Amino acid sequence: MNGPRTASRGPGIPVAFLLLVLLPLILMPLAAVFVFAFKNGPGTFLESLRDPDAQFAMRFSLLIAFGTAVVNAVLGTFAAYVLSKYRFAGERSLGIVVNLPVAIPTVVVGTSLLLLWGPIGLLGRLIDPLGLQPMFTPAGVLLAHLFVTFPYMLGAVKPVLDELETTYEEAAQTIGANRWQTFRWVLLPALRGGIFTGALLTFAHSLGEFGATVMVSGNLRLRTQTAPLYIFAKFEAGNIAQANAVAAVLALLSFLIFFALLRSPRRRAQQG
Amino acid sequence: MDGLRERSLRIALPIALGGALFLWALWPWLPFSGAANPPRTIVFYGFSILGDVFNEGIFPAFQKEWRQRTGEKVEILGSFAGSGTVTNQIILGVPADVALLSLESDAQKLAAAGVVPDGIWRELPHAGIVNRTPFVILVRPGNPKRIRDFADLGRTGIGVVHPDPMTSGGANWAIVAEYGAGVRGHPQKPDAGFEMLFGVWKNVVAQASSARAARTQFENGFGDALITYEQEALRDRALGKLRADIVYPRRTVLSEHTLVVIDRNVLPGERKRARALVDFLWGEKAQRIFVEYGFRSVVEDLNTGNSAFGRIDDPFRIADFGGWKRANKEIVEGVWRKRVLPKVKH
Amino acid sequence: MSIVLKDLTKIFGKHRVVDRVSLEVEPGELFVLLGESGSGKSTILRLIAGLWRADGGTILLHGRDVTATPPRSRGVGFVFQNYSVFRHMSVAENVEFGLRVRRRPRAERRQRREELLDLLGLGGLGHRYANQLSGGQQQRVALARALAYEPQILLLDEPFGALDIKIRAQLRRSLREIQRKLGVATVLVTHDQVEAFELGDRIGVIERGRLLEVGRPEDLYERPRSLAVATFVGSGTVLVGRSHGDVARFGDVELPIPAEVPHESGARVRVLFRPEDVSLSESPPGGADRPPVLGRGEIFDQAFGGATKRLRLRLPPLREVRQIAPPLPYGEEGLIVEADVSAEERTPQLPWVVLRSWHILRRPAPRLLACDPGDGTTDVLEMADHLADAVEGAVTLLAVAPEGAQTSKLEGPLTARRDEVGLHRAAVRVRAGDPVEQVLAEQAEGVHDFILVGFRGGEGRRPGRGESTAVRLLDYLPVPILLVRGPIRRPRRILICTAVGEPGKADIRIGGWVARQLAAEATLLHVHRGEEPPQWVRDHLRRGVATLRSLEVAASLTLRPAETPAEGIRDESREGDYDLIVVGGHPPELRGERENVTRQVVELAGCSVLVVPESA
Q: Which of A46, A54, A115, B40 has the most CB within a 10 Å radius?
């Protein structure tokens, strides 16, 4: 029994109060998604999911999320390594800059990407005549997601690196390992947990990203429409059942990722 | 050993799940999946209420005809949002080949931004106008507030749902409808247009980014009345989804929807297909589909094809107010923004 | 030699963590670096391994200069204090890691791994992970991992630091055996003397980045050369007394000073005796060669130590004797002596404290800083040679290059000149920047006792050049400065001037010491303006002569009338054929007329001048 440690009158009242607050705040809205998704029976639900646009949106979102997670796993780990292992002028400012995307509204991220890469943007103006146009294409969506989710990887990996004593690397060096071998055999395995956590967080955020995506994707069905954009478009158009079907799937995926995240530290603790 | 197996299972399971998810997501792009990527595409941007008629009616019909004619499979990628949003997206560079905008002034915005030459759409049939639909009032079933015309919307205690003129073409049409009804109903009264507009706007309880979104809001229970395209209401009624009554004002505007071909986005190889789609839109088949979906055709004879079309005593057009350029300046800017908006703010 | 360190230096910020450490480790030797935490011993180890870059000096491993070689190419095995066993690898994978990065075949890796695991008593643990091992086992895995690729050098950083005492003793023995068996040259760093004594073939004692002393454990214990080593290594008592001829006096106790220990009569002498050198008896010992007795002591504390017990005794104070170790509690006036006696021995209440054996500590050799004039002349170097020879001092040769110059270029010629003069043992240093600043910095860092600097008369007055380095140095005068001026020979006649105002004691003491070391004659000079000097001055001069004679220096007194003190000194030095003039100098706040005299003497003298700070 996990009895209360301090409360003498038992946990009843505070727990009830917490539930009372959480119910309308978090639990009921989530439940509403599922209720509406299945309101017209599972048939309609599956029908909605079978819609080619919905299928595309979900597949596209998943691929973008996979891509974002993979690219940022590499980039974020590299950034964490540089920031953690090297001391240089401007290191602090760089540390702030790489964490900036967390603080910037995603809509602003979308706008700034458009103003850089868009046909009338600073760089876009130069590459547009070459036939290169990342905006309003899957590449643009990927760019936006990389930007928005960059800090998650860093936040998961850098603390692990910071805490890892340098003697492990030094041991590998004296033993005769070169930089790559040291990274591959000594650092990377130690970072596995952090990278896994970071990648999952990145994946989850990418899956639900809306603000930046709506700016840069062009919202083209069957081309650049992600699942959240699909949900929004369908909802705005009044097709609430269709919107909710996809929303329910997204919510379900998020739950799965959440459970994976909850379990990963436990696994690390067992190994370490 | 058991512990080891349990651990490997716990690692293998998420990996298997993740892998399966990835495979499923990638499936259509895999070479053996059978869903070969159709290379021939037309990118079509339209304003909000066009979603159903194009996705369900026009595109399949055109694809079928094009296939019969050439044997080619053409894919049409559509994106539908508020007319202003679509216009801004195109200005920012989305690769739209063809756009159907709610009002001509959005086309003029494209021209002003240098996306298309000014007035190029007027070279198309019917000066670029693909179809029409009058603006009507939707009220709660049984019309409990007894709303008969625009003037009734100004009564106290009425809540009006209105799309946002900043992003919605429909909202601009609605303003012209309200203003025009006032002016044409009281030709002697000097400021009848303003009074009508002000009456409606002081009762606006919700503004949505597009006509479609405004209707969703109305359906979700906001307000007593919604000013919207007749087509929307008819379409819903046909589908049995309409939980509202349609009120036909005595005087209202017939909105006219302008087609723009964005030539610079049309790849040379696509020009033929894009042209064919444009021509198809004014063809009898497409115009009949529009009528079926509640639009009024530019070919008057076809409009008898839909018995649901209501009677309007005094329909007027934007041309009656000197076209969108002037209407924008005199009605939307001159009256609504400069006089009505400041007065309803407080 | 397996490891040769030459002038190894590491600087963190403004701090010299490792300061010119030179060291040689023979093949197969187990060398222990002993020092307190923060002394820089681990830094030396990291420099040898290449984990940190040295800021100065060279590292040779088996004759190969590896100073700039990355750690992985140095072929050393390193065991960290925290073991750093890779946690995600099994024991077997850890041990094989060095062979795997060298791409050795699987069979070889396996064989070597099994060998090592057996050797270290880890057989059967190959599949385990670090978190399934005890601290001692992890430590052995780390050792096996470091030995797997057969490094020629093994470096161990406090390898037993985190283990409990019982395991520690056990592991020490097995480490010793393994090291012997493999014959790998090993450097072990520890702060634990017991460990150092048990393991080390030789021990180097490190304090504040400097290598104080190197020697076999028994030498360091019984015959430490310096006070620091005497008090750091083992416990024991250090007393300060005075020498009288060939004996050192501690109150009524006289201990003979061995011939090999240089000493001077009247100088302070320090004696060390260990607890086991002290015996206690009920009655005072008699007989012809009875051992020295410190007095009767009162036992106030005892600690059980197995076969022996350690007693702490309080003794009444001895006349003119100061105790350095163990430190006396505040207010304590007597002596505190530790004695180890057999555990069974019954000790009397007030035993006589008898010394069975003792060790007279050497004075540290004086350190001379000779500044190369940079014009190719060797006057200063020759003088340094004479002086170093006489005082058994260590010489550092310093050249100062202009700011921004490449210091390495000057090293060769300076070394050549050094060898030409015959100062082969002198260390060579080149610094860049302002000469005065660099000389002062070098003196402060190297704790030199004398500065030798070249001087030519009138140089300071040359227009456009400002004052010479020598003259500017006199403004600081941190230690006695010898201004060298030809002709150069071993000084035989020394003129000590007390004429400069208030007659100082430092100039007589230091001048006398130099005269004694050089076996030179000393003349004490007083310059007056013609009238008889007052009685107190004459008393002072007489005491001065007595002091010189007590230092066994042939001394005489000369009184000389002259217009100014400087002129008197000049005339006396010319007539008397002196080789060296000793004159007092003053810190800036006391300067004035007197300093002027020092300057004038320096300018006018025809030979070398030793300027002694009055505070010395």
A: A54
